[in-house]
Give the backbone structure.
Amino acid sequence: EVQLLESGGGLVQRGESLRLSCAASGFSFRSHWMDWVRQAPGKGLEWVANIKEDGSEKNYVDSVKGRFTISRDNARNLLYLQMNSLRAEDTALYFCSRVLMDWGQGTPVTVSS
Amino acid sequence: DIQMTQSPSSLSASVGDRVTITCRASQGIRNDLNWFQQKPGKAPKALISAASSLQSGVPSKFSGSGSGTEFTLTISNLQTEDFATYYCLQYNSYPRTFGQGTKLEI
């Protein structure tokens, strides 16, 4: 069974940084693209970033380019999202996902201004 | 960016009804479209991939169709557990984009 467990969310001030982690199990992590998707309170889903199986290709939504970095550790089955220069509009529940098919339960990020 | 326009944004239905949700892409996306169900406080659940392929374990009451720019999700014989918000997602190009969601209510 695919399991994805996000952690690292919390309350930060505007301009601060946060690193989210996602622990994956139940599948061959190194063989799959992985994504981060977020959902602001009461809003819809927004794709944030994804990363190729070997980490050689990364893609981002424009609103986070230059501020967020997605990475992975295939030896430890971990996915990361480094978030810098956080803004109020980054406040959301952040989900990690295996090719947008299997999803974790999310970790909340709140950016206070 | 490809815009995904879902309609309706909300839908009122009754147990036993059959409903259809539409997603329109601002440009052709072949069949690179998934459908998701999300219940309050929960993660999205994938229902259909590649526009019409039912995911393992998803009941056959859910069906998807379409290609290019017009896609539909049909849910037959609605039950109480089907009342949720539904999203489409295109994965034809970057950035991936979701529809704004359709809230299915009793």
Observations:
- The mean pLDDT of chain B is 97.
